[in-house]
């Protein structure tokens, strides 16, 4: 065989069949939870015009300044692999006039792309599940979105996260606060990192998001953002907290929490988890009351979140969360010899057509090896058809959990009835 000369691109990953169940279970569980909260799925394209993200995510954001994978089409127009989900959702919301509904509740899931330095929990192609509630400025909706996010995490078997909460205010409160921040950092002797010195001019709020130790040590004593909220932002923030309390959702106020995207207003939140190392945020979100208008629509308040699926899986692995299997293999068919094999091909078809997940040994293995494989596949039952059974026109059905064996007639419909009954597919009746 020739040597393999192509590798996957750094920061991207093949998801192999043995891992795919974990992903599918997460996606299915998410769909179930979203349905409970009346959210509907919207799938937007992977490729968008670059301008969408520049205006939607913001010129001073890390995403736009250094993380976009952009390419030119044949006419020289700049396209970008979507780095985040909110701007495309709002684009679609406006194009398809989804705003006809008073409140649009939308969820999405799929791959996103950012040119970052790959490390555990930080990929260049990663996957997010996200939700946006568009058209509602009630603080209850902020709380509902947070409680939906926590419900999702619990459904994925994750507890022990920490909800960090802040309000970043609106343009009215941000103006004076940004000035205060500039004054504060200018008065400090130790300089900010070169990136932050640029940020200080363009958008000083970005400085608060810097992870570098030299900047962090200055940030901890910076003026706290909530002290500068205008009356209506302050009232909104108080109400969000009161509703969270009444829902028994505990949170930690984090006065320097800002989101990495420029469009956030008022509520900002992040969920961190101790099982994650330095990339400790598993999900983040907040309110973005100006984005719809900025993208050409009417002034429309909105709130949402996104969680990182790879980081969920990291936590599940670290915490040894065993989510229930999607559908267990019901029957593994173990024929001995050609005649038995032929019988079982028919039974296999019958079982599958009746919705019973089944598999057959196509390789003529010995019984011992068939049982070993059935065990590995976590089969509930093994149906054995050997010489003895053929002679007696029966099949032996072995319960792999209890080891108990039963003999049943080889007749296809009798056999199917029996298996359906032991699998509780036919409800017991008097
Ligand atoms: P971080 O501070 O970790 O870079 P972020 O603020 O850039 O996160 P968001 O844009 O808010 O992240 O995305 C929401 C979630 O998506 C994050 O909390 C994280 O779980 C996940 N995420 C973001 N970027 C990546 C990435 N490059 N690889 C894997 N997951 C990611
Ligand atoms: Mg980031």
TrEMBL record:
Q: Which InterPro entries match?
A: aa-tRNA-synth_II, aa-tRNA-synth_II/BPL/LPL, Anticodon-bd, Anticodon-bd_dom_sf, His-tRNA-ligase, HisRS-like_core, HisRS/HisZ, HisRS_anticodon
Please report the name of this protein according to its UniProt entry. Answer: Histidine--tRNA ligase
Instruction: Give a Pfam family name.
Output: tRNA-synt_His
Record has Cytoplasm as a keyword: yes
> Taxonomic lineage per UniProt?
Bacteria
> Which controlled-vocabulary keywords does the entry list?
Aminoacyl-tRNA synthetase, ATP-binding, Cytoplasm, Ligase, Nucleotide-binding, Protein biosynthesis
Q: Report the transmembrane regions from the record.
A: none
Q: Which reaction does it catalyse?
A: tRNA(His) + L-histidine + ATP = L-histidyl-tRNA(His) + AMP + diphosphate + H(+)
For this chain's UniProt record, which GO biological process terms are given? histidyl-tRNA aminoacylation
Q: Which organism is it from?
A: candidate division NPL-UPA2 bacterium Unc8
Q: Which HAMAP family match?
A: His_tRNA_synth (MF_00127)
- The answer to whether keyword Methyltransferase applies is no
Any one GO CC term of the record: cytoplasm
| Annotated Aminoacyl-transfer RNA synthetases class-II family profile domain residues | 1-335
What enzyme class is recorded for this protein?
ligase
Q: What is its EC number?
A: 6.1.1.21
How is this protein organized at the quaternary level?
Homodimer.
Q: Its Gene Ontology molecular function terms?
A: ATP binding; histidine-tRNA ligase activity
The entry assigns this protein to a family as follows: Belongs to the class-II aminoacyl-tRNA synthetase family.
Give the domain of life: Bacteria
List ligand-binding residues for L-histidine. Answer: 84-86, 114, 128, 132, 259, 263-264
């Amino acid at each position: 065989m020739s040597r393999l000369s192509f590798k996957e691109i750094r920061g991207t990953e093949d998801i192999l069949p043995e891992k795919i169940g974990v992903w599918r279970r997460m996606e299915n569980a998410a769909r179930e939870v979203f349905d409970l909260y009346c959210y509907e799925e919207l799938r937007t394209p992977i490729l968008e015009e670059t301008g969408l993200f520049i205006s939607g995510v913001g010129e001073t954001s890390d995403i736009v300044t250094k993380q976009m994978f952009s390419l030119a089409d044949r006419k020289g127009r700049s396209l970008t692999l979507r780095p985040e989900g909110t701007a495309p959702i709002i684009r679609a919301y406006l194009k398809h006039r989804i705003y006809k509904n008073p409140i649009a509740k939308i969820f999405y899931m799929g791959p996103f792309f950012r040119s970052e330095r790959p490390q555990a929990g930080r990929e260049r192609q990663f996957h997010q599940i996200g939700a946006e509630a568009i058209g509602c400025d009630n603080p209850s909706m902020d709380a509902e979105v947070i409680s939906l996010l926590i419900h999702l995490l619990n459904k994925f078997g994750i507890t022990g996260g920490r909800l960090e909460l802040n309000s970043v205010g609106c343009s009215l409160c941000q103006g004076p606060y940004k000035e205060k921040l500039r004054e504060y950092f200018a008065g400090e002797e130790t300089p900010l990192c070169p990136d932050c010195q640029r940020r200080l001019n363009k958008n000083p709020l970005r400085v608060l998001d810097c992870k570098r130790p030299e900047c962090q040590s200055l940030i901890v004593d910076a003026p706290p953002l909530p002290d500068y909220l205008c009356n209506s932002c302050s009232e909104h923030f108080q109400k969000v907290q009161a509703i969270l309390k009444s829902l028994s959702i505990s949170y930690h106020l984090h006065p320097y929490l800002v989101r990495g995207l420029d469009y956030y207003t008022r509520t900002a939140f992040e969920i961190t988890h101790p099982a994650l190392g330095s990339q400790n945020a598993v999900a983040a979100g907040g309110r973005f009351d100006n984005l719809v208008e900025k993208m050409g629509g009417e002034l429309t308040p909105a709130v949402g979140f996104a969680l990182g699926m790879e980081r969920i899986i990291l936590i599940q692995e670290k915490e040894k969360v065993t989510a229930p299997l999607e559908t267990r293999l019901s029957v593994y068919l173990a024929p001995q010899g050609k005649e038995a094999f032929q019988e079982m091909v028919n039974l296999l078809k019958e079982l599958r057509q009746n919705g019973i997940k089944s598999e057959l040994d196509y390789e003529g293995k010995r019984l011992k090896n068939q049982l070993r494989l059935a065990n590995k596949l976590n089969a509930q039952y093994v149906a054995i058809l050997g010489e003895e059974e053929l002679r007696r026109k029966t099949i032996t059905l072995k319960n792999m959990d209890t080891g108990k064996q039963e003999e049943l007639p080889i007749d296809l419909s009798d056999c199917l009835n029996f298996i359906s009954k032991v699998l509780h597919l036919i409800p017991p009746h008097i």
